[in-house]
Amino acid sequence: MISEWIVAFGTLLLAFIAVFQDKIRAYFLSPHLDCKIELNPPDCHRTVMQGGNDPFYSYYFLFQIWNTGNITAKNVEVIISDVSKKEGNGFKSLEDFFPDNLPWSFTGQKIYCDYISPGTFKHCTLGHIHDPKFRDSLSGEHNQNLPVNSNEAIFCFDVNFRSNRLTYLVEPGVYRFVITIGSENAKTISKKFLMSISGKWFEDESRMLNEGFSIEEVT
C-alpha cells in the first residue's frame, strides 16, 4: 500500500515537473537587473571633446547596469521617463520630455545591449555637461529659450531621439526621474533618482563633482 502511494506521488511529481519545468528553471536560473551610479570616475568623469579646432572639457555621467543573476541577460534596454523639476515644496512634470531610450556607452549610440554576463555590468549614458563657453557652437547643445546666462552650465540628457524642441536640455535645478531596465529574459525593474545641477562650471573634476552636479537614488 505504501509503495503504491510512493509510486503515485512520484508519478504526480514527475508530471508537475514536466508541465512547469520552464517556470521552475526560470525561478532558479534567471538574470536579475539592477542599476547604480557612483559620483566619481569612471561613472562620472571629465573628458576632452573636439569643437572645431578647439578642444574643450565635458563631463559625462554613466549608469552601471548590472546583471546579478546566474544566467546571461539578453537584449537589455534602459529607458528614462517621468522627468520632473523641483518647484517650491513639490515637483512639476516636464510634460514636453518624452520617455526614451538611453544609449549604451562606448557602443556608437546602440539602444540595445546584446548581453550582460552574470555578475558583470555595462555602462549606459545618462547625459553630459559641456563647457558653457563652447555651447553656442555645438549643434543641438544650445537652447536660447532656457533662462541661463552664457557661463552657466546646463545638462543634456543623452536620449535616443533628440527633439527639435530641444527638450532634452535642462537648466540648473533639481530633477527627479525614473530609470527602467528591461530585457528579453529578465524581469523589468524601475528605480527613481534625484539629480541636482547647480549651473556652476569647473574644469577641476573633483570640484565639478562636488559643487556642480549630484545624483542619488530615492524611494
Which terms would index this structure?
2 domains; alpha+beta; 16% helix; 219 residues; seven-stranded antiparallel β-sheet; 2 helices; Immunoglobulin-like
What does this structure look like?
The chain has about 220 residues and is an alpha+beta fold. It folds into 2 domains: about 30 residues; about 190 residues, Sandwich (Immunoglobulin-like). The strands form 2 sheets. Strands 4, 5, 6, 7, 11, 12 and 13 form a 7-stranded antiparallel sheet that branches. Strands 1, 2, 3, 8, 9 and 10 form a 6-stranded antiparallel sheet that branches. A hairpin with a 2-residue loop joins strand 2 and strand 3. The chain is elongated and about 90 Å long. The mean pLDDT is about 90.
Number of domains: 2
The amount of helix comes to 10-25%
CATH class of the largest domain: Mainly Beta
Please give the largest β-sheet: 7 strands, antiparallel
Number of H/I helices: 2
CATH H level, superfamily name of the largest domain: Immunoglobulins
CATH fold label of the largest domain: Immunoglobulin-like
Low-confidence spans: none
